Amino acid sequence: MLAMDYRGPYRIRVEEKPMPKIEHPRDAVVRVTRSCICGSDLHLYHGMVPDTRVGMTFGHEFCGIVEEVGSGVENLKKGDHVLVPFNIACGQCHFCKQGLFGNCHESNAQATAVGGIFGYSHTAGGYDGGQAEYVRVPYADFGPTIIPDWMDPDDAVLLTDVVPTGYQAAEMGGIKPGDTVVVFGAGPVGIMAARCAWLFGAGRVIVFDEYEYRLEFARTYCPAEVYNFRELDVVVFMKKTTDGLGADVCIDAVGGDAAGNALQTLFGVKLKLEAGSAIPLHWAINSVKKGGVVSIVGVYGPTGNMIPIGNVVNKGLTLRANQAAVKRHLPKLIEHVKAGHLNPKALITHKVPLEDVADAYHIFSAKLDGCIKPVLVPSAA
Amino acid sequence: MNAPTTDMIKDPATIPGWGVDIDPRNDPTYPYRDRSEDNGLSNAWTRPPVQQTDVEILQSIEHVRQPAVVGTSTPPSWISGMIRRGAFRYSESHWLHWLMLMGADRINVVEGIVQDLGRAKIPNIPAEMGIRSEWKHNKTGLAKKVAVVGAVGAVAFALFQWSGSAKRDGSDDRD
What we know:
The complex is a heterodimer.
Chain A: E1 2-8, E2 11-16, E3 28-36, H1 39-45, E4 62-69, E5 81-84, E6 87-88, E7 116-117, E8 134-137, E9 145-146, H2 153-158, H3 162-172, E10 180-184, H4 188-199, E11 204-209, H5 212-221, E12 225-228, H6 234-241, E13 247-252, H7 262-270, H8 279-287, E14 288-296, H9 309-315, E15 318-321, H10 326-339, E16 348-353, H11 357-365, E17 373-377
Parallel strand pairs in A: 10-11, 10-13, 11-12, 13-14, 14-15, 16-17
Antiparallel strand pairs in A: 1-2, 3-4, 3-8, 3-17, 4-5, 5-9, 6-7
Chain B: H1 78-87, H2 95-118, H3 125-128, H4 131-137, H5 139-174
Helix pairs in contact in B: 1-2
């Protein structure tokens, strides 16, 4: 089968690889019909995530058709079209019992901090991902959700990560009616977080980024007030536009690849002396009001970052963060799509054959051709 | 300061779905919702069957047992594999653990090229880096990169030539 193949930072290609097989009674093998490239895949692509091994296949946002199930899978059958949450979760461990499906304790041998994630380095379990024609899906009796007949697969594939992550970012903000919510980053997750902030009753939604085409998209899609952080002092602006108080909720939807501060870029991105550039988190902490909430869904590495933790203490802030517990959100999000409250597929700007995966990554990484969200489509889909 | 203009201010009442998920119980100081009868307070759970595998799995020393399922992609190999095995002697809270893994990742890239050459395959690195899309969508940027690489290459070549001739001149002096 064809699969994306990581060869090193900024280098990927398509290779012929062995077909995945059932390795555990609760496994399934799925033939991929759609597979997105996620903004967090770019952290892997840029060589920022430790234990990213040459030869691995990325891809944690995918849907597909069940080809084979293990002996322990009774709720799926061959031919079912499923969307597969990016978390690999058993559904029964100490953490899954609390709905922390991003923190499953039975799916990641290499690290205890995070549960298994498809195609996201060995730090997230060492599973090959869905940027391939076929993929092994562990705990298939728990994670995959059958796509409703009425749902467009382009909507379904975005329910595997982007929509739930954006939704949880807003949820973790504890937004109250009328709150001012700031989102750092107008990538797909940031855009979705801003859109979902309205569902929780936000009174004002503000998005910061540096790319004008993304800001323009956020302005109309979310809809949100949008500002280019290159053109103002983010923290001063936020204070002035909230009568000196600061925002009620700040959301970091960027993570370690963030631009905006030369020192953070040097230490975090170039020299790898910290776990990525933490400038959006720095801005969030300093822009939120005293007693406010900072919600973090941007991906950082596992080491340390320079952030103003003293201000977190002095301002009495609440920090909330996690990988989205996709399965927990799906019933509600499917209803939101059905009701027209959310329109995920509008984020998709590029549909690319799997064979052209190297070009798709480059377009997404370099922000070329107005790219918001690229989706890979295997020829057999 | 860029003040928000009138067209930027949104009336929430005009936004589809506004407020449908307002939940006064979403208290940010209580992080997660209960989903189980025991309120997540029991440490015990019925474990899934444990996956048996012939592939070498490196395991965090913070785990007290192997998780029930494991990823079997790209097991550790060669020099990078030796370094990765060394890294897993340290816990996830130890910087050395992560620094060794990052170092192994870089060595693994060289191993990947050696592996390609061993299979009589010359990696098409420009294609792997998406040069086709760069040419299609960013010709100016590509031209700049080529110019910079060319200039650096030319300077390096000139320095190499100069260094060689200086050595030869030095040898002549000693004769």
